Amino acid sequence: MTEVSAQALSPPWDDASITAIRRDMLRFARLQLRDSAAAEDMVQEALMAAMTGAKRFAGRSAFKTWMFAILRNKIVDHIRASAREISRSDLAARAEVDAGLEDFDALFEQRGHWNPDDRPSTWSDPEASFEQEAFWTVFDVCMNNLPEHIARVYTMRELLELETTEICAELGITSNNCFVILHRARLGLRECLENRWFQGEGR
Q1: 64 located within any domain
Q2: Most buried of the four, 121, 123, 141, 173, by CB within 10 Å?
Q3: Do 107 and 179 belong together in one domain?
Q4: Do residues 17 and 99 share a domain?
Q5: How far is residue 128 CA from its own chain's centroid?
Q6: Given 83, 115, 134, which residue is the final one in a domain?
């Protein structure tokens, strides 16, 4: 490999690049962990791992993609460790939370379709909203409004892209429970985003 090509594959460790990517990594970690201190720790560990293993960056993906892959692995390990520490009191609390979520089910008819009075309004331009910093601030609030065990399952499946079987094994839940929890998470996020963002209040 020539010196020029080696330089082209080297991670950009300049201050501006690291500051920008660290900001994005921290936001991502906070969304996953709902814990600012833990998010800071995971980002720091990911940055240290990247610097230590910089020679493994082969340039087959973008530098940011490579960094986020490292961060994702750190977050997955952290969530797995946290999941094993769930106490019996936490499990009992889940039943109480689930009972409160039955109100969500009332929004649908028996066939699973929206009740006419509860049907969501049309979202103006969801794709454009994802590009706005303010949207992610509102999304963060909505994630934090979800019960912890529901947010954890949603995070593991939709944001960290773990397989359902792996989630069930880690959390000690059935596949049916997992699907129900994911349904409730999506419904809770949709309702929250409708109220806080897509109806104009977040803009």
Answers
A1: yes
A2: 173
A3: yes
A4: no
A5: 19
A6: 83
- Say whether both 60 and 142 belong to one domain: no
Which segments of 84-199 does DSSP mark as H helices, in order?
A: 88-100, 102-105, 126-129, 133-145, 148-154, 164-171, 175-193
Dihedral sign for Cα atoms in the order 178, 158, 29, 139 = negative
Of 151, 133, 130, 153, nearest to 142 (Cα)? 151
Domain that holds residue 132: 88-198
Written as tens digits, the pLDDT of the chain (203 aa) is 444 344 444 555 666 778 888 888 888 888 778 788 999 999 999 999 988 876 666 555 577 778 888 898 898 888 877 766 654 445 555 554 454 445 445 555 555 455 555 554 544 555 554 556 677 778 888 888 888 889 888 888 887 778 899 888 888 889 999 999 999 999 999 999 888 777 655 54
| Prediction pTM value | 0.54
In whole angstroms, what is the distance from residue 197 CA to residue 126 CA? Answer: 10
Q: Which phi-psi region, left, alpha or beta, contains residue 34 (left: φ > 0; alpha: ψ -120 to 50)? A: left
Q: Whose CA is closest to 159, among 32, 19, 43?
A: 32
The CATH number covering residue 35 comes to 1.10.1740.10
